[in-house]
Write a structure and sequence with these properties.
With 140 residues, the protein is α+β, with helices and mostly antiparallel strands. Strand 3 and strand 4 form a beta hairpin. Helix 1 crosses helix 3. The longest helix has 17 residues. It starts with 11 loop residues before the first helix and ends with a helix. The relative contact order is 0.24.
């Protein structure tokens, strides 16, 4: 018989840690961003858009986080899969809730269990990815 150990869900404090770390990384790079943190059920735990971040970054950060959560993978790793010849090419339109296959979404794990995701929008995709990775590293 396998014994299962409960894993603590993301807390409001965890969400603040993720937000702060992502924003600190972006600020150090001179980039204004939006950051979204979702729990394991896809529910919004925290969101913040820098005053000068482009407005669409709020939507992109949320969709990136949702995509990373649903597929349990960084969105940076999924970009090639949705190209016209990729195995997931129709996935972008298959669901009611839109996915976004642009780097910047990263799943959050605790003790090997998926507990949420963070999404960053506003910089270049590679920058957003690095800011999201910095956020998850701060939580580890």
């Amino acid at each position: 018989m396998t014994t299962r150990t409960a894993v603590a869900p993301l807390t409001a404090q965890d969400a603040e840690t993720l937000l702060s770390a992502a924003r600190d990384a972006a600020e150090a790079a001179g980039v204004t961003v939006s950051v979204t943190v979702l729990d394991a059920g896809g529910h919004l735990l925290a969101f913040r858009r820098d005053d000068r971040a482009v407005l669409i970054s709020g939507e992109t950060s949320t969709r990136k986080a949702y995509t990373a959560l649903q597929l349990d993978a960084p969105t940076a790793d999924l970009v090639a899969l949705v190209k016209p010849d990729g195995p997931f090419h129709s996935l972008t339109t298959a669901l009611d809730r839109p996915l976004l296959f642009i780097a910047g979404g990263v799943p959050v794990h605790r003790d090997g269990v998926l507990v949420g995701a963070v999404g960053v929008g506003g910089g270049a995709p590679e920058q957003d990815h690095s800011f999201a990775v910095a956020a998850t590293a701060a939580l580890a």
